[in-house]
Structure formats: C-alpha cells, structure tokens
Amino acid sequence: MTDATQAADATAEKPTPKSRFSRAWQSDFAWKFRHSPVAIVATLVMLVIVLSAIFAPLIAPHNPFDPSSLNLMNGFTPPGAANQFTGDLFLLGTDDQGRDVFSTILYGLRISLFVGVAAVLFAMILGVTLGLIAGYVGGWTDTIIMRIADIQLTFPSILVAMLIFGIAKGVTPVEYRDQMAIWVLIFAIGLSDWVQFARVVRGATLVQAGREYVAAARLIGRSGPAIMMRHILPNVLSPVLVIATISLALAIIAEATLSFLGVGAPPTQPSLGTLIRIGQGFLFSGEWWILLFPSVTLLALALSVNLLGDWLRDALNPRLK
Fold first, then answer.
1. C-alpha span between 301 and 211 (Å, rounded)
2. Which pTM value belongs to this model?
C-alpha cells in the first residue's frame, strides 16, 4: 500500500468536526429544552410579545400617543366592530380617547419591558457585586451587607419600591419629573430587588473561596478584585441567570402595580399598568375590553417568563442531572 493510499484512508476515517451550532443542538441543555413542551411554549409566547414590542412602530396600525391622529368620535368602539360615526374598524376596540387598544398595548409593552429589563440588570449588578464582596472579604463587611439585606427582606418589595420612588421623585426638580419618571421607576424597582442576588452570590462565593484555584490565584499575586471577577464570578453565574429570569417577571409586575396605583409611568408614557388603571375605570360601564386585553397581555408575559425561569432552574440544577 502506497503512502498516498494510507493518507487517503486516514483522511476518510477521520470524523468531520461538528460546528458550534451542531454541538449546541446536541448538548444536554438543548435536549432538555426540546423535550419540554412548557419551555417551548413559554419561549414562543415570550418571543412573540418581545418582538411585537420591539417592532411596535411597524406593527401598530396607529400611533396612539400622537394627538393629531386621534379622533374622539372613535371612542368606545367595541372589538371587531365598525364605529357607528366614522366607520373605522379596530381589532381590539378603542378607549375613551379613541385610541386603538391594540396599538396602545404594543407601545405600552415597550415601556413595561424596558423598565423590567433595566431594573433587573441594575439589581443584578448591584446584588452580584455586594454578594461577591460579602462572601470574599467577610468580617464586618459581610455582616453589614447581610444585615441590610435582612432588614430589607422584612418589608414587602412593592412597599420598598414605593418608598424609594417617592423619595427619588421628591428630590427630582419639578420640571424634570415626567422626563425622569421612567428612570426613577427603574431605580426604585432595582434597589428593592437586589437582595436575592446578593444572598445567592454570597453563599456561592463562600464555597468557591475555599477552592484550590482561588488559593493558587492568591499565591501568584492576584488581587482580590481580580480573583472575584476573573475566577469566582464565572462559577456563580448559573444561579444568577435563573434568578434574573424569575426577577424579570416580578419586576414587570411591580412596574404594573406601581403604574396601576398612579405612582409609576407618567400618562405621557403609559405602560401596561397605566393602561389597566385606565381600563379599570370603565369596567362597570360596559367597556370591558379596555381593561381585559392589557390585563391578558400582562398575564401572558409574566406567566411565560415565570415558566421559563422555573424550567431554567430545573435544567441548570446539577442535582437533577
């Protein structure tokens, strides 16, 4: 047998390397996802809602917050019926101002999702940072951080968010309150939700700090912040991602609750909570659709995110593998 033949046989026997997508598709995580109908349905529902919010200007038939496009004669048009005065047809009906409910839901979703995601990111960054410091440094630093967390846990999160929102809005100049309302809302919800991240990360850091790789990093002269960020943080991210997913649903509900109570998003930038508050005022006068459709949208969004978070918790739990 010639060298060329042997080389050809060796090449033919060598398996073709798999692409990254192929390896990811065949992983245990992807297998669990493909065999979980709940996770698939929750992901599809969440993707539809998120994409609808992102592309709201392209999907919405009207811009509900453009006064020039509103017609008061279209007010209180039932879903799927033509208005008796203008003849205009609206899929989900209109509210008292003649705004298309379908369009208001799409634009309200943008505010609710933005506030929820931004608040969770803020809470995650703050909680993970404090948890790493408390678990790695220990001593009085750990005691102070954890006692603050314990004190905050004794109060309901929504009350803490309302308190922080009221204080932050009070120190904001009057002329900037409407412009800063969304950012103040993000700050209030995020500051009321950092405790869960801090407690979980602190516990995981205490475990990782005693490992040999951390001792080796200290021996070669690595600084404390470098060890926390480069060595410990990557090993504690799995539970953080699960908490972030579940916290997203809670943050969206908290934003809707605050807006429903009138202390959240301003009327010029209504979220789903604001739309529900507006619709609640017309529930007993027969215009049920103004309340129903924003409520169902909020329920579908929160439920899909919660179900996906529960699945992630089970999929990433090493005890269930």
1. 40
2. 0.86
